[in-house]
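Take a sample.
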Amino acid sequence: MEINKVEFIKSIKGTNDILYEPKLQVAFIGRSNVGKSSLINCLINRKNLVKTGKLPGKTKEINFFLVNDSFYFVDLPGYGYAKMVFY
């Protein structure tokens, strides 16, 4: 499939109505600093749509990116490093 359009929709903490939308959600999950955000940038053929950092723990919220107006890439915070509390 060719990706023609990607846009950042929103970041959330906890629950939100976007979680219940009928669109497919492809979630990227893994340890901190393994390249989840970089992988999304690679898949969408962009360098900086998804924020990346050299230090672990950059992603602190759940980030939704709408792909071709049909499904979401969901960038999740890494586990095993980030020092934060989820409510």
